[in-house]
Amino acid sequence: MANKQIIKERRLQDDAWKVVNLVDGEAAIDVCLPVGPLLVPLAVWKAKKACLIHREYEHGTPLGIWLAPEDRVEDIAADIDDFTVIAVHFPKFADGRGYSTGRLLRERYGYDGELRAFGDIGRDQIFYLNRVGFDSFVLGEGRSAEDALKAFDDFPESYQAGADQPIPLFRRRAA
User: Fold this and answer.
1) Contact 42/72 with Cβ under 8 angstroms?
2) CB-CB contact of 138 with 116 (8 Å)
3) DSSP state of 57
4) How many Å apart are CA 108 and CA 73, to the nearest integer?
5) Taking a C-beta distance cutoff of 8 angstroms, is the pair 96, 67 a contact?
6) Is residue 67 a contact partner of residue 43, using CB atoms and an 8 Å limit?
C-alpha cells in the first residue's frame, strides 16, 4: 500500500503507510520493521509492542495495526489509543467478517481514528463499508478508484442508523 492512492475522506489521496506481512514460517518477533509509518499485523503488535510504541512516541513515527478476519477486536481493545490507523483485511470479496470488526471498533470500543478497509475491496462494498464506520479504502488489484468514489452517492438516503449516520432518517416520536 505504500505510495499508492487510497480513498480517504471521500477523495483520492496519497498513502505512505507500509504494510508489514509475515512470511510463511517467520516468527513475529523476528520481523524487520522498515522506516516510516507502519501497519503491522496483530501478531507483530503482540510480539514487538514495546519497540513499536517506542518508535511512535520517541521518533514521532505513526503506528497502525491491521487485523485479519480471524483476529479478535478484543485483543487490541486496551491499546486502541496507540493506533493512528486500524486497517481490516478483506482477503476475498465475499468475506464479510470485516464489516463486524469495523462496527465493533466504532460503536463498542469508540475508535475514532482512521479505519481502513484493504484487500479484495471493490466499488460495490464502499457504501456499506462506510455505513459501518470505515473511512478509507485500498481497492483490490485492477479496480478503479475513480469509479469507486461514485459509490458514496449510490444511495442518497439511508433509512437505518449507521456509523456514518447515527440517527435514522425516520425515527419514531414518543406519544
Assistant:
1) no
2) yes
3) H
4) 10
5) no
6) no
C-beta separation of 118 from 90 below 8 A: yes
> Grid coordinates representing 47?
510480539
Letter for the amino acid at 82?
A: D
Task: Give the pairing of strands 85-90 and 136-138.
Answer: unpaired
| Angle, CA 36 vertex, CA 110 and CA 14 arms, to 5° | 75
Integer Cα distance of 148 and 139 in angstroms: 8
3-state helix, strand, coil in the chain (%, to 5): 35, 20, 45
In the block, which residue shows the cell 462496527?
A: 103
28: closest CA among 41, 40, 42, 43? Answer: 43
Q: Could you report the per-residue pLDDT of 104-147, keeping only the tens digit for each? A: 999 999 999 999 999 998 888 888 898 899 999 998 888 777 77
Backbone dihedral angles phi then psi of residue 39, each to the nearest 5 degrees: -110, 110
Residue type for 102, please? G
Whether pLDDT at 1 is above 50: no
Pairing of strands 11-15, 63-67: unpaired
Query: Is the model's pLDDT at 2 over the cut of 50?
Result: no
Name residue 121's amino acid.
Answer: I
